[in-house]
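ARCHIVE CARD
CATEGORY: sequence design from structure
SOURCE FIELD: tokenized fold
FIELD CONTENT:
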């Protein structure tokens, strides 16, 4: 196999969203949350999904995670339409995909030790106790937390450390694809940078693919290979970070850039 073929394989699209529309309600009360959305994410890369509250970002994330079937269109992983998966097939697919929320309190039960929280997706995947212990230790090491963190509780950690625990929980399952929903917006700027650098390093180490959801173009510019801008349920612009930041084509993208602090602009 040639190097060119290897490169093409490495960048094959792991996710393809094809003409997805999501409507809620009936008749005159119907609301269109997603309007014919299409996008792709190459394996091992990051797509930044940017837009204000109500733009459709979270609805699209739920569709990609198969939490709610779209009204029309399809979600493909590795070229296979997974939109209609049910039962055991859906459970197997979900082992490949993990989620990191904006607030780690959404994913970390305060009654659980760190080890138990990290173990949850492993138990669901049928991983044995010995292997779970190994993966928990490895996950904590990867996010630069000490082993004694395993026996402690979330309230004993800072916000940035709790988000590292949430990332460890997602990565312990060896996912192929991780949806990151505003994972740094609740953190101080200095801690944001540390978490972003951690995510970049994890991607380099594991080859995991990210969908990074945010309202902040300045944040996504530093982590994403490509950026898609959503407005009123549609993708209105897509390109590299440099293209979107320095030569925006859509009026909405320009308005997002205009609202950014000057110190973040390139």
């Amino acid at each position: 196999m040639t190097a060119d073929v290897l490169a093409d394989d490495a960048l094959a699209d792991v996710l393809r969203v094809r003409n997805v529309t999501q409507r809620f309600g009936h008749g005159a009360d119907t609301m269109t949350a997603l309007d014919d959305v299409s996008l792709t994410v190459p394996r091992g890369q990051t797509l930044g999904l940017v837009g204000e509250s109500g733009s459709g970002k979270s609805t699209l994330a739920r569709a990609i995670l198969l939490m709610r079937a779209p009204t029309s269109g399809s979600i493909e992983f590795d070229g296979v339409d997974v939109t209609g998966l049910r039962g055991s097939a859906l459970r197997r697919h979900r082992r490949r995909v993990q989620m990191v929320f904006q607030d780690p309190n959404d994913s970390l039960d305060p009654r659980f030790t760190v080890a138990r929280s990290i173990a949850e997706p492993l138990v669901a995947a049928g991983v044995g106790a010995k292997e779970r212990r190994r993966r928990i230790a490895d996950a904590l090491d990867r996010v630069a937390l000490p082993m004694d963190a395993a026996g402690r509780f979330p309230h004993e950690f800072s916000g940035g450390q709790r988000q590292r625990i949430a990332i460890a929980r997602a990565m312990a399952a060896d996912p192929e694809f991780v949806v990151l929903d505003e994972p740094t917006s609740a953190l101080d700027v200095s801690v944001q940078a540390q978490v972003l650098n951690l995510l970049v390093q994890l991607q380099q180490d594991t080859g995991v693919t990210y969908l990074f959801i945010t309202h902040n173009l300045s944040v996504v510019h530093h982590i994403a290979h490509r950026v898609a801008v959503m407005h009123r349920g549609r993708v209105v612009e897509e390109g590299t970070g440099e293209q979107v930041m320095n030569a925006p084509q859509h009026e909405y993208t320009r308005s997002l850039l205009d609202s950014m602090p000057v110190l973040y602009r390139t």
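CARD ANNOTATION: The longest helix spans residues 189-206. Confidence is low (pLDDT under 50) at residues 1-10, 262-266.
SHELF: design records, drawer C
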